Amino acid sequence: MNDVISRLSELLEQRKSADPASSYVAKLYAKGMDSILKKVGEEATETVIAAKGGNREEIVYETADLWFHTLVMLAKADIKPQEILDELARREGLSGIAEKESRPK
Length: 105
Fold this sequence. Notes:
- The protein is mostly helical.
- It has one domain: Orthogonal Bundle (Helix Hairpins).
- The chain is 78% helix and 0% strand.
- The radius of gyration is 16 Å and the shape is globular.
């Protein structure tokens, strides 16, 4: 699974220098973080609606869109997906309650 995320992450980094007229991702970067966040929000809403509807194919499709646009957001913020995976690994085996209490205030 990490191979797909790694390859996509590399591609998203390359798109930072691409022409916005020729690349959807470059166009998102050019519009700025607010536009990227709007897209993440739209995809999150569509994912929730798909899950509520219970159609497996729609859930997979919309979740893929959400993950993709979240990766665009991370790339724009210069955060590597590995940082997120490392954080998930850190939380593995922890109680959700204990993890939340351990966060900096």
